[in-house]
Amino acid sequence: PGAVAGAPAAPAQPAAAPAQSAEPRASMPGPQLEGSPLYVDAGDRKVQVLLTMNHPRVVVFGDLLSGDECEALIASARERLPRSLTVETKTGGEALNVDRTSDGMFFTRGENPLVERIEARIARLLHWPVAFGEGLQILRYSPGAQYRPHYDYFDPAEPGTPTILRRGGQRLATLVIYLQEPEQGGGTTFPD
After folding, report:
1. Do 62 and 50 form a contact (C-beta atoms < 8 A)?
2. What's the whole-model pTM score?
3. pLDDT for 25-65, tens place per residue?
4. Interval 91-141: pLDDT, tens
5. SS3 125
6. What's the number of CA atoms in the CB half-sphere (13 Å) around residue 14?
7. 179, 45 Cβ separation under 8 angstroms
8. Nearest of 56, 45, 44, 49 to residue 32 by alpha carbon
9. Closest to 135 measured CA to CA, from 149, 119, 148
10. Would you give the DSSP letter of residue 138?
């Protein structure tokens, strides 16, 4: 199974002031890729680095999860997959949206030993504390299901964003893990 890590396609905060008055930038989540390593240490597992891009920032990993871990996540989530909701940026709530037709659920952080182990692995891989991440989200895309192009960050100009940010903060990066290969179709595209 592979995984993709990337930053949002649009800035989460306004651009910094000119260099002479700019404050130091806070660190961002991401793997240590200096020297172009073939593998990175994720604590309990070495993860392959299959591809890196800088603009947009995309890293493709291999072997982030074992086949058994993928199967166990699927089995744990199977009975907990209602139709996925999207965030309502006007109100800060959630609603069904025709642009997103998957089924999905979130594990609470540290919900079981498997989830806790995977969260720790991701935190080590991306050099980002578990406490700053969301719970693992499992999505099932049946034939024909999709999530149309969107941003994973929350637009600060939208009136519902303060409510959303109180629940878990701004999203700075996204990690996508494919748990199962379809017989045909499937995939993630970055249209911009």
Report:
1. yes
2. 0.81
3. 567 889 999 999 999 999 999 999 999 999 888 999 999 99
4. 999 999 999 999 999 999 999 999 999 999 999 999 999 998 889 999 999
5. helix
6. 6
7. no
8. 49
9. 119
10. E
